[in-house]
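Possible regression after last week's pipeline update?

I re-ran a chain I had predicted before the update to compare outputs. Posting the input and the new output here so someone can diff against the archived version. Not blocking, just want to make sure nothing changed silently.
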Amino acid sequence: RSHRFFRSVSPEEALELHESLFLAELAYIDTVDEIRAGLEDGSEWELVYAQITSSPAEPGHYLAVRRNQKVKSDNLEVLLSVRGTKEIGDLLSDALLDADEYRGGKAHSGVKMSGQYLAKKHTPLLQQMLDLSKKKRIKLTIVGHSLGAGAGSIAAYEFNDNPNIEATAIGFGCP
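New output (post-update):
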């Protein structure tokens, strides 16, 4: 039986969502070594960078690159996982309640600033990774939960302004 308004989810899409939720959950882990171990045990990703602590508008997150990528592919596959509210810096981001103008609409100030921070912080590193890989483009998947889902959505918009980056966001409990 199908839903009246929405198509059903294929088994492949369900598996992809399950993996994305696992990768988003890893952003809540307390040490870089534990994130690295979680990636090695349960995924195809290798840790490149991790920011464990947060500050206002600077959420905890990690960046990883897919292992065993196809040599002949034009795309370098990269993952950005953004944590939701966990510590005081995240609570302060949540408390930035103004509705800021953003791309013809409105965005929660703390979420917008967090997403813009992620894009500004990682664009130079992503460009360096692209140059070293000799690929033509970064295929960036952003996953996040709660505050991380909102920040990841804004970051995807920001990254997509760069012609060398194709970003998609998968959010769980997005505000």
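Follow-up from reviewer: compared with the archived run. The first helix runs from residue 11 to 26. Marking as no regression found.
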